[in-house]
Write a structure and sequence with these properties.
The protein is mainly beta. It has two helices and eight strands. The chain has one domain: Beta Barrel (Porin), CATH 2.40.160.20. The longest helix is centred in the N-terminal third of the chain and has 15 residues. It starts with 11 loop residues before the first helix and ends with a strand.
Length: 177
């Protein structure tokens, strides 16, 4: 009888912790936050999606934590796990994002990031990218985001990775406290 092997990726603990923080913020009373993008707020994000790499299609799950260093300006750290294909993929991404908070009802955002991607049985890779989109606030401490991301793999061999840059959509949930 085959027994399933349980693997704990290098960033699994970080993802679990970020997901727990984001979950806790979802049930926090709205009185804890008057504006999700206000200076000094801590944010949590949760993302579920689809990703393509190495000719495969993956289900992606991610979570992150950010800090609003100024009104609308966030420094953050995100993690992702890619499931459903081989090799296993995990990503960790520090980012900077600016949200134009003076616009209503939608709030446009732009940002930049660096990603370290960990592949099972392949060399790890770095990438850089940019994102843009809109937030749709739906409470005093939460907003949905819809956007587009451009990501470029650094030191990429197209013979292995098929495409060294890609553009893809993103949808997420941001909560703050």
């Amino acid at each position: 009888m085959d027994t399933a092997r349980i693997r704990f990726p290098r960033i699994a603990r970080t993802l679990v912790a970020a997901a727990l923080v984001a979950s806790a913020m979802l049930v926090a009373p709205a009185s804890f936050a008057q504006e999700p993008f206000a200076r000094g707020k801590v944010t949590g994000t949760f993302v579920v999606g689809r990703g393509e790499a190495l000719g495969n299609t993956y289900t992606t799950v991610g979570a992150g934590v950010g800090y609003m260093v100024a009104q609308g300006l966030m420094l953050g750290l995100n993690g992702e796990m890619w499931f459903g294909e081989d090799p296993d993929i995990q990503k960790i991404t520090p980012e900077i994002r600016y949200t134009f908070t003076n616009m209503n009802p939608v709030k446009p955002y732009v940002g930049g990031f660096y990603t370290r991607t960990f592949y099972e049985d392949l060399d790890d890779l770095n990438s850089v990218g940019a994102r843009a989109g809109i937030y749709l606030p739906f409470s005093t401490n939460a907003a949905m985001n819809f956007g587009v991301v451009f990501e470029k793999l650094l030191d990429c061999e197209e013979s292995t990775y098929n495409d060294c840059s890609q553009v893809y959509p993103e949808v997420g949930l941001l909560v703050s406290f």
